[in-house]
Amino acid sequence: MLRFSIIIATLHDDGELTLCLDSLTKLNKEPCFEVIIVDQNNDDRLIEVIKLYTNRLDIRHHQVAFKAASRARNLGAQLARGEWVGFPDDDCQFMPDTLIEIEKLARQSQIRVITGQTVDESGSPNLVRWQQEPTFFSRWTMFGCLVEATMYVRRDLFLKVHGFDERFGPGAPFPAAEGI
User: Fold this and answer.
1) What is the pLDDT of residue 121?
2) Which burial class, exposed, middle or buried, applies to 1 when counting CB atoms under 10 A from its CB (0-12, 13-18, 19+)?
3) Are 159 and 79 in contact (CB under 8 A)?
4) d(CA 77, CA 143)
């Protein structure tokens, strides 16, 4: 079984997905991971991009006829084969040791959700109110330690709670806060 499934919901891509996939090719190969792209475009703009990576990544492409980020991520989680699922945005770029660091935490049996702060190209944090120390997730800390683009969760638990609430996120009635 794969350790991680990286689920990327994408819409109106203008080249960011290429940068994201390129960064995934530079990840250290262990732990094993797959990439699931849930393509919400109503055209074939990503076909050639994805073909460039099929020999370098374990990648699956699913075109859908809806436009809703949480729904797309939930579909990706249902299709996933990994023990853990992650939901980076299509414009995210991974550091080479990202999954190694996540794996270190995932080995701890009491941990069910892992998240981290996003940084810009210089390595500087780009979320202002982020917890600066490791923090247990709770309703009191969630706004400073969770963003869906850096969230990894055990797939079995994610599916048990039926994934993201599809009323939240881009394309939904409440277009933000889908991670929380």
Assistant:
1) 79
2) exposed
3) no
4) 23
Report CA Rg, the chain. Answer: 15
**CA pseudo-torsion sign 61, 62, 66, 69:** negative
Mind listing the domains of the chain with CATH numbers?
A: 4-160 (3.90.550.10)
| pLDDT of the chain, 180 residues: tens digit per residue | 689 999 999 998 777 899 999 999 999 877 899 999 999 999 999 999 999 999 999 999 999 999 999 999 999 999 999 999 999 999 999 999 999 999 999 999 899 989 888 887 787 777 667 777 777 778 888 777 778 888 999 999 999 999 999 999 899 998 888 877
Q: What are residue 24's phi and psi, to 5 degrees? A: -70, -30
CA distance 161 to 139: 17
Could you give the CA distance from residue 161 to residue 135 in angstroms, rounded to a whole number? 22
